[in-house]
Design a protein that fits this description.
The structure is a homodimer. With about 190 residues, the first copy, chain A, is mainly α. Helices cover about 65% and strands about 0% of the residues of chain A. Chain A has eight helices and no strands. The structure holds a DNA duplex (19 and 19 nucleotides).
Chain lengths: ~190, ~190
DNA sequence: ACCTGAACACCGTTCAAGT
DNA sequence: ACCTGAACACCGTTCAAGT
C-alpha cells in the first residue's frame, strides 16, 4: 500500500521474481540487471544494494531453485505410495518435471562454478542432496537397492537424473521420452530385487 | 610465411583455436568476438565473415567439441582389452577426462538450445551417439548388458555419463570421485551378468 | 571474397550525491 | 539504509567503404 516514492521497500523480492520469469521465458543470456531495474521502475544502479553483481543474482536464483526443487521432490515422495519403486519413480518424475518447466534455471544450478575458490555449496543444495540420500538409505533398508556406500549410490542417482535432464533441456532427448527414461532408471537401480 | 597485410587467409581457424583456449582458461562468459579479433590482430568486425554472430561461434565450438569427444571415445575403446567391462570403463573414463579437462566446452555442448526452431543436431553429435550406441549393442550381443531397446539403453548411458560430468564440472562432486563413479556406473549397467 | 572504421544501442560497474 | 544520475569501459551488430 506504499506509493514507494523513493524507497521501494520490496526491491530484492521483486527483482528475484522478475528474474525467474525472464529466465524461464527468455533464458540466461537475456537476463540483465539494467532490464530488471527498468521493469521494477527503479534506477539502473538500485539493484546493486541487493545483488553486488550479476553473478550474485545468478547465485541467488540458483539457491532459490535448489530450495524449490528440494520442496517439490519431498512433496512428490510424500504423496507416493508405500511401494519403494513408486517412491523412486515419483522422485525422478518430480526432478524431470522441474527440468522441463525450468530448464534454464536447472542449467544455472549446475553451471560451472566461477573459479572463485572453494566456495561451500548453498544450504539449499545440501537439502536436495540430503532428501535424495534419505531416499537411497530407505531403499537399501527394504532391500530394493543394492548394498554399498549410500553416498556413492546417491551421487550416481543424482548424476543420472541430472544427465537425463541435461539431455532434455539441450534437445538431445525429447520431453516425451522422459517417461521411458524414468522407467529404465528405476529398473536399472532396482533390478533383480523386491 | 605470409605477411598477411590485409587478408588473413587463416582467420577462421585462428579464431576457433583462440576461442577454445579462452574457453578452457576463462570460461564462456569471458569469450568475446572483439577480444578474439584483437588477439588475432584483426579488426573487430572481421570475424563476422566467418561467424555470423556470437552464437554461431559457440555452435562451431560445440560442433568441434563433439567431434573431438567422439574421436577420444573411439580411441579409448579401440585401445581397451576385449573384456566388455574394460571397454565400457575405458569409454566412461575418456568421457570424464574430457569433462575434467574441458568442462566449459562440455557445458556448451549440452547447453540449452536457443529457441530458434527444431534445428537438427550437428553431425558430430550424431557420431558420438552412434559410437556409444555401437558399444551398447556390442554389450547386449555378449550378454554383458540387459536386453531391450538399445536406443533407450544408450540414452540412459549417455545421461549417466553426462550427469557425472555435470556434477564434476559444477563442483558438486570432486574429480577424485570419478574413478568410483565410473566403477559404480559399470557395475550398475552390467550387474549380475557374465 | 575478405577486411576496416565509424556508428548505434546496449551492458556491468562505480561513485558522488540525494532522501 | 536505500536509491539516483552521470560516467567509464566494454560488448554485439551493422554497414558503407576500402583492397
Amino acid at each position: 500500500m506504499a506509493d514507494r516514492p523513493y524507497h521501494h521497500g520490496n526491491l530484492r523480492a521483486v527483482l528475484l521474481d522478475e528474474a525467474q520469469r525472464t529466465l524461464r521465458e527468455q533464458g540466461v543470456e537475456q537476463l540483465s540487471l539494467r532490464d530488471l531495474a527498468r521493469q521494477a521502475g527503479v534506477s539502473h544502479a538500485a539493484p546493486r544494494r541487493h545483488f553486488h553483481d550479476r553473478q550474485a543474482l545468478l547465485d541467488a536464483l540458483a539457491d532459490a531453485g535448489f530450495a524449490r526443487l528440494a520442496d517439490e521432490l519431498c512433496a512428490a515422495i510424500a504423496d507416493a505410495s508405500e511401494d519403494y519403486e513408486a517412491r523412486l519413480r515419483a522422485a525422478a518424475t518430480a526432478y524431470l518435471r522441474f527440468a522441463i518447466d525450468d530448464g534454464a534455471l536447472l542449467d544455472l544450478m549446475f553451471a560451472t562454478k566461477n573459479a572463485s575458490g572453494p566456495t561451500a555449496l548453498p544450504a539449499s543444495a545440501t537439502r536436495l542432496f540430503t532428501a535424495i540420500g534419505d531416499l537411497i538409505s530407505q531403499g537399501q533398508e527394504v532391500d530394493a537397492l543394492p548394498p554399498g556406500d549410500p553416498a556413492r549410490l546417491r551421487l550416481l542417482l543424482v548424476a543420472t537424473l541430472q544427465g537425463i535432464a541435461a539431455l532434455i533441456t539441450s534437445g538431445r532427448a525429447d520431453p516425451g521420452q522422459s517417461h521411458d527414461l524414468i522407467a529404465d532408471t528405476v529398473a536399472l537401480f532396482t533390478r533383480d530385487r523386491h
